[in-house]
């Protein structure tokens, strides 16, 4: 048994010295010193030894066990130090190396304009709403008091889908859906993409963005509408002359268009920035409101037009071509 213990000692010492990593070292500890390890297996035969041999073998076994533990600790410390050195080398930063340029994200002019307008109206007590881009004729036209023979329903303007639906031509359809699900009084705003069969040029694009404003209550007046729009335009564009002109929209009555006086290098001129009016009673009837009890006003504006004014952009196509040279300016 003494020879077995000495042989096991030499075998274990070599194995521990050559252990490549901490996992292998733990496996060796279990293999040699575990409850069912090789050392325990040899010592299991001590019952067959004489009374004189047992103390000798016991002392040798304890010596070997202590040396095992010492060698394991030394090898574990060496492996941990080597592992830490590798980790530190991998994570080291050479401060003399050139930096890696990470471009900073920027807000697109369209989204920036929407955020600014939303901030103004939320501050006035309006709540944002959303709606689908794929619409039915009912929500896009009929519920908004737009008869079947209205020019806006012509195929030249509206993009119809094979299933009979269409891509919304304005965000006014969101107002109908909102009124179907909410009772007055309320103030809401909604924005999103709209689609029309427009020829592409410096001021037209088949995809653009609109933002709608709707307020419904028992005693809303045309004066409330003019005051709200005046405050909004002053907050967004600064104090400047504002002009209200009579106009026509099928879903408002009376209706108006709103112009602002805009100074430029070539001189000042009036620019149309939005359309508005009092909600037509037929629109209220389509959503189950009693037009004898409630009134409301609505306004709609094109985001791209305002973005071009705010950022000094003279061609709407620049907003959609994803040119980094253009976008990095904002």
Q: Can you describe what's shown?
A:
With 330 residues, the chain is α+β, with helices and mostly antiparallel strands. It has helices spanning 2-17, 22-33, 38-43, 53-91, 109-123, 137-140, 172-181, 222-237, 281-286, 303-311, 324-327, and strands at 127-129, 134-135, 166-167, 186-195, 207-217, 242-249, 252-264, 267-279, 295-302. Helix content is 42%, strand content 21%. It has two domains: 2-91; 109-327, BirA Bifunctional Protein, domain 2, CATH 3.30.930. Helix 1 (2-17) packs parallel to helix 4 (53-91) and helix 2 runs antiparallel to helix 4 (53-91). The chain has a seven-stranded mixed beta sheet with strand order 1-4-5-9-8-7-6, sandwiched between helices.
How do you describe this structure in short?
The chain has 330 residues and is of the alpha+beta class. The chain has 2 domains: 2-91; 109-327, 2-Layer Sandwich (BirA Bifunctional Protein, domain 2).
How many E-type strands? 9
Low-confidence stretches: none
The count of helical stretches stands at 11
Sheet-strand content, in percent, reads 15-25%
Give the overall average pLDDT. Answer: 87
Q: What's the number of structural domains?
A: 2
List strands and helices in order, with pairings.
Layout: H1 2-17, H2 22-33, H3 38-43, H4 53-91, H5 109-123, E1 127-129, E2 134-135, H6 137-140, E3 166-167, H7 172-181, E4 186-195, E5 207-217, H8 222-237, E6 242-249, E7 252-264, E8 267-279, H9 281-286, E9 295-302, H10 303-311, H11 324-327
Helix pairs in contact: 1-4, 2-4, 5-10
Features:
2 domains, alpha+beta, 11 helices, 330 residues, BirA Bifunctional Protein, domain 2, 42% helix, 7-stranded mixed sheet, two-stranded antiparallel ribbon
């Amino acid at each position: 048994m003494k020879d077995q213990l000495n042989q096991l000692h030499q075998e274990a010492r070599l194995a521990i010295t050559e252990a490549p990593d901490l996992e292998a070292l733990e496996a060796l500890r279990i293999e040699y010193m575990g409850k069912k390890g090789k050392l325990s297996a040899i010592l299991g035969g001590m019952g067959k030894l004489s009374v004189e041999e047992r103390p000798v073998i016991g002392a040798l076994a304890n010596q070997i066990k202590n040396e095992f533990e010492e060698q394991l600790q030394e090898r574990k410390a060496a492996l941990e130090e080597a592992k830490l050195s590798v980790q530190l080398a991998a994570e080291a930063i050479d401060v003399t190396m050139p930096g890696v340029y990470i471009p900073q994200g920027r807000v697109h002019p369209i989204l920036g304009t929407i955020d600014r307008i939303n901030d103004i109206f939320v501050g006035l007590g309006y709540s944002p709403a959303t709606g689908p881009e794929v619409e039915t004729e009912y929500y896009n036209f009929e519920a908004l008091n737009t008869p079947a023979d209205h020019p806006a329903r012509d195929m030249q303007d509206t993009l119809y889908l094979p299933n009979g639906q269409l891509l919304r031509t304005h965000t006014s359809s969101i107002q109908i859906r909102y009124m179907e699900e909410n009772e007055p009084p309320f103030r809401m705003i909604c924005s999103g993409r709209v689609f029309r069969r427009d020829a592409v040029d410096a001021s037209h694009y088949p995809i653009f963005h609109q933002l709608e404003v709707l307020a419904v209550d028992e005693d809303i007046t045309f004066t409330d509408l003019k005051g709200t729009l005046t405050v909004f335009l002053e907050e967004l564009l600064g104090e400047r002359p504002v002009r209200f002109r009579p106009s026509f929209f099928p879903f408002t009555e009376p209706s108006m268009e709103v112009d602002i006086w805009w100074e430029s290098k070539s001189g000042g001129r009036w620019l149309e920035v939005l359309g508005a009016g009092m909600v037509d009673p037929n629109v209220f009837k389509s959503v189950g409101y009693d037009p004898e009890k409630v009134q409301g006003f609505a306004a709609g504006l094109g985001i791209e037009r305002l973005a071009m004014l705010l950022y000094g952009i003279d061609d709407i196509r620049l907003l959609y071509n994803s040119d980094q040279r253009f976008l990095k300016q904002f």
